[in-house]
Amino acid sequence: MSSVTRSLLAASIAAISVSVVAQGNKFPQVPLNDKRFEYNQLPYKVDTDVGLERGVQYGYNICNSTTTGAQSKCQTAIINSIDDFCLWGPPDPDSLVGNTEGEAVAWCTDPSHGTRTIPPGALQGVQFMKTPDYIQVVGFIDQTKINMRSDDYGGEMDPHGADLRGNPMGGLLYSKAWSSGGDFKQVIQWHNFMGANFFCLKACDPSKPNDRKFCEHIFDRIGCAYNAPNKAQNGTFESCMGDNQDFPGVYTQNGQVMTYTQPPEELGVIATMPYQPKVPASSQCTQYQSQTLYAKLGTVSTSASASAGKPTGSGSGSGLGGGTQTGTGQRAQQTGGAVGVRVGVGMVVLGFVGVFLLA
Ligand SMILES: *[C@@H]1O[C@H](CO)[C@@H](O)[C@H](O)[C@H]1NC(C)=O
Ligand SMILES: *[C@@H]1O[C@H](CO)[C@@H](O)[C@H](O)[C@H]1NC(C)=O
């Protein structure tokens, strides 16, 4: 073999192995969930991997007064209290969470975090709760105001994801809830379900041993009702103390502790659930007026004909994926990122196709 032939051969073998590596290459060097940063020492982007399947981090993590506003790509979220929290939402209007979870940006109630702000009037009822192991904010939202399609049953954002880069990729969450000195602590385990005009965001106390279990990320199809059981009321804004929930997916039946197994997407719609989640007791609830809580967001414009004309859905019957209180399988069609499958409304369609194929 001539040396030219030999080096050509070597080159093509190298090219083949590079393309094989590139194709199967979706995992980062360090999973997002293993990365730790002080809030005041954040890098511009925490996801520094290049050449992976899902591309590069959409936004950035250093967020300040120059990044505040409607175009913000801030991916550092905050949860402190009922009047100071963020939710993950799509960067562009009319999006499905299932298609954009990797690029979600922070939408906050306080403009001081360098993020987008949740438009006035979007929050329709909010319950904040502090328990021994986590803080949680759940509520009703006009999701079209944070770029979600009105009919989106939504999905789950969390710092894991099928490729361990998180949804959103590079997304971080911080809180002052557990520090007496008022400094931000990185929340290591959290989940945020958005959909069907409902949301829940649970941030688990990083100093507690069960933070990963309370903020479990594998039940991405069963929504807030099962991942963050609550009694939030539409129209009510309250902050409470509470007991811990059961770990998501864990329940007690006839005295036996059981663990739910979420069926794979291919099996179609989850029609029934074997259990009703237990809503833990709450106490010391303080109620507020939303105008007072969210004064920094401004007020709803009275000429808001756009909002008057919004398709709101009657809330009757089908799929309130975000997790209102009614309980069973229908509403449980929450979708999203944790297991990395694109679902949303599409899943229902696939379900029907499946039925046709079987018939
Ligand atoms: C503000 O944030 C932007 C975007 O992350 C960053 O480039 C800039 O350095 C920050 N400014 C300060 C003063 O930290
Ligand atoms: C919550 O209340 C608002 C205002 O009455 C209503 O428009 C909205 O549809 C309700 N949301 C849900 C999910 O029922």
Automatic annotation (TrEMBL):
Q: Which residues cross the membrane?
A: 339-358
Answer yes or no on keyword Membrane: yes
Leader sequence range is: 1-24
Q: Where is this region: Disordered?
A: 305-333
What are the record keywords, sorted?
A: Membrane, Signal, Transmembrane, Transmembrane helix
User: Where does this protein have compositionally biased stretches of type Gly residues?
Assistant: 312-326
The name this protein goes by in its record = Macrofage activating glycoprotein
What organism does this protein naturally occur in?
A: Marasmius oreades
* Record lineage: Eukaryota, Fungi, Dikarya, Basidiomycota, Agaricomycotina
